[in-house]
Fold this protein.
Amino acid sequence: MNQCQVIAVPVDTATWPVAFVVPRTNLVPDPNALLRRCKDSLAPFKRPLRIYIVDELPMSHGQNGSKVQRHVLREWETRRLGSNGLLKYLDARSSAAQG
């Protein structure tokens, strides 16, 4: 992994962790393998429901250094949710809690 950012996506009255990963050059990580590793090493409430492999993270650059624009990542995930997004999240969360 070259870079990673986990964000909290608000859904209904809860927040859900979602991870965005920028892989190292010439590597193609398997999101399912990363999820399994998270399951083995993280508490259930810390496990991301989804892991997206992206080419780059949205960054802002200023005098104090570079920062990931987490609000942009939240917007990306909110758009991906679509009209049935809440049901998909609840199903995913239920499956994650059982597994």
Summary: The helical segments are 31-41, 70-81, 85-98.
